[in-house]
Amino acid sequence: MPVIKAQRGSDGETSSRAPESRLQEAVGLAGAIGLEVVASEIVAVNEPRPATLIGTGKIQEIDELLDNSDIGLVIVDHPLSPVQQRNLEKAWVAKVIDRTGLILEIFGERASTKEGRLQVELAHLNYQRGRLVRSWTHLERQRGGGGFMGGPGETQIEADRRMLRERITKLERELEQVVRTRQLHRSKRKKVPHPIVALVGYTNAGKSTLFNRITGAGVLAEDMLFATLDPTLRRMKLPHGRTVILSDTVGFISDLPTHLVAAFRATLEEVLEADLILHVRDMSDPARDAQSDDVLRILGDLGIDEKAQNEKIIEVWNKLDLLDTEEHDALMARAAANASVMGVSAVTGEGVDALVDQIAARLAGILTETTITLSPAQLHILPWIYEHALVDERRDLEDGSVSLDIRVPGPEAQRLESMLAG
């Protein structure tokens, strides 16, 4: 395992990525959950078979490989219909999962927060709707573990489907509550003068390593696909003292199933709320351009159109330390000629200080909305506020203090923070 077929994307269109690159990625996905890859192969399919996807000759060839090896799992790096999956399992007498199933397994292992676990389980159950083969009786434990499987005369498949529907409904309700809580936290953050900077990128592009380099946080950062699943937020100070919130999000990947994108939409909404987006790219990967296209396509699906992408995104060309001197220097020269591109190495720290300076410069013109209260001893600051900020509402309180709803540019926000603290 695995046997990889990766000539076409999940939408049926020919992939822009070389089959060898997709094979390497699929092997990396298997390794991300500790699977030992015994054999891997690119299987060319001219006309997909409705019953098995691949031809009978190749099925027989793989069957002989399985008979001669201690292999219990075959991964097909292509979407499989329930019928195709079932027929391949019968032909090979082995467990078969497709690309979607593999990604779900990785997400299930990586999820650490309540929201992440709910999202993974919901996506997994929706994926299994048409694949019930006595595989969901473990849901009894969700019902108290009493072994109750349904009323008199109810078949096993009907009982499984009923439990599946009930569990999906319950998860959707729980996730709605978690989403409301996240929105509440987000609305509270909006009352604090801290812009949000979100890191996005193809999985394993080095987002978490860059996140750690900038913030000093101890986020898991390994050379592994989907090393980070749940979003991580940290406050950081920019060179001129302004505080921002940096958000590290789940890595994107090509052919990400639609229902999986939908399940994680609440998590990815951190990106929608961001004032600035850092698109981290692995410039040492031969498939870097195709990966970039995949990321921008998913951002578009989330509602960040091309205009917003041009306005909000800084491309971060990462892993320059893995390039030879000639390519490194050529990319740095190209980055220097484009204000929306920064060349860095998150591992060595090269270019990171310049990136932070660029973040500060891009955020300087963004107005921050906040509410402040001036004590009677601080009222001498009022004239400065009216000169440097937009005052939307003023409330004179009984104790002589003044409450203001204001919008203030970045540099002035930092100076105001210092004046209030003094």
Cα-based radius of gyration, to the nearest Å: 26 Å
Q: Helix count? A: 15
Taking the sheet with the most strands, its summary is:
6 strands, mixed
**Overall spatial form:** globular
Q: Indicate the proportion of strand residues.
A: 5-15%
Helical amount? 40-55%
Provide the low-confidence segments as ranges.
1-14, 134-153
Query: What's the multimeric state?
Result: single chain
Helix and strand content put the structural class at alpha/beta
How are helices and strands ordered from N to C? HHEHEHHHEHEEHHEHHEHEHEHEEH
How far apart are the first and last residues' alpha carbons, in Å? 65 Å
Q: How would you characterize the overall build of this protein?
A:
This protein has a 6-stranded mixed β-sheet with strand order 4-5-3-6-7-8, sandwiched between helices. The protein has a 3-stranded antiparallel β-sheet with strand order 9-11-10. Helix content is 44%, strand content 15%. It has 15 helices and 11 strands. The longest helix is centred in the middle third of the chain and has 35 residues, at 156-190. The chain is of the alpha/beta class and 422 residues long. The relative contact order is 0.09. The protein has helices spanning 19-31, 56-67, 82-92, 99-110, 114-127, 156-190, 207-215, 258-263, 265-272, 288-302, 306-312, 325-336, 352-363, 382-388, 410-421, and strands spanning 73-76, 95-98, 196-201, 232-237, 243-248, 276-282, 313-318, 341-343, 368-374, 390-396, 402-408. β10 and β11 (402-408) form a beta hairpin.
Features:
422 residues, 15 helices, 15% strand, globular, disordered N terminus, nucleotide-binding
